[in-house]
Structures are given as structure tokens and as C-alpha cells.
Amino acid sequence: MGTPGTADTQGSQGRPGSVFAFPNPVNEYAARITAGLVVLLAAATLLTGFGWGLALLSAGFWLRVLFGPRISPLALLSVRVLAPRLGRVKLVPGPPKRFAQGIGAAMTTAAAVLLAAGVAPAAWILLAVLIVAASLEAFAGFCLGCALFGLLQRRGLIPEDVCEACNNISLSRT
């Protein structure tokens, strides 16, 4: 396996070697740093009303969902520069993190569409909700998307084999 949190293809979701592979496991600290960078960009977008910020956020989420951290500028900065400087690694399952990125992609895309349609208040509300969720991940280590993934898996809506390590949530809370 490669460096924790990098997009090596061993143990990745998707076909090994696939361009759409996602790392599994993921370095929790790299994910939290990426979330912190999302908070900064989203807060700047909200405070300035700069609509291109929504497009940048949305593109970043889609890049992370589709390709893992290999292409996203925020993820590359987190995985290759900032997280290694911490010198700490905590490996967590990748599938819930990918699911959380998907939620971020959906929210930022919806906010960008709402803004383009002239419904700015709804767009800014979605962005504020995203800031809260990303702040929980970045500053408290609580991934709301991951919790939702776990709930859906316990309800049988996400098959257990998608993330076998997720079946026992207590294992990841050490």
C-alpha cells in the first residue's frame, strides 16, 4: 500500500488501477484538512457573494468524488503537503468519505444552479449548511456524511460489502 491518504490503487474503491479509484483507507487528518480548506473557500464565497466560488467548490467536490485526491487542488494540498507536516496518521474507511464528498458535490451544484436561476437566498442557505457540515469534520472530527452512510448501511440501503469496516463503527472510534 502507498502512503496513507494517497490515491494508490491497492484497496481502492472502483476497479484497481481505474481512473475512478478512491483510496481505502483514508488518512483522517488529510480529510479534516481538506474540510478546513472547504470551510475557508465556502466562507469567503458566502461573505463576498462571489458566485464563481460556488463553481470552484462544486468542481472540487466532483473531482474528489470521481478521482479521489489525485486531481483536486484542495485534496492534493492536504494529502501531499499539509497532512504529512502533522506527522500523524489515522486510517479510516474510504467509502463513507467518498459518500460525504458526493453530498458536498450535490449541495454545491444545487447552490450554483439556484444562484444561476436567481434564487440567491436558497443558494446561500445551502452554502451555510455546507459550512456547518465541513466545520464539524474539520474542527470536531465528526463527518456528517459518514454518519449518514453508516445509518443507510445499518438500514440495508447500502450493502454491507461496500464497506465491511463500517459494519462495526466502534472499531473506527479508537
Features:
174 residues; two-stranded antiparallel sheet; 61% helix; 2% strand; globular; disordered N terminus
Q: What this model shows, in words?
A:
- By secondary structure, the chain is an all-alpha fold.
- The chain has one domain (26-172).
- The chain contains 6 helices and 2 strands, in the order βαααβααα.
- Strands 1-2 form a two-stranded antiparallel sheet.
- α1 crosses α3.
- The chain is globular, with a radius of gyration of 16 Å.
- 41% of the residues are buried.
In short:
This protein has 174 residues and is mostly helical.
Q: How many domains would you count in the coordinates?
A: 1
What distance lies between the first and last C-alpha atoms, to the nearest angstrom?
A: 22 Å
**Main sheet: strands, sense, barrel:** 2 strands, antiparallel
Number of strands: 2
Spell out the helices and strands N to C.
EHHHEHHH
List the SSEs and their pairings.
Elements: E1 26-27, H1 28-48, H2 51-67, H3 73-86, E2 91-92, H4 94-116, H5 120-140, H6 144-154
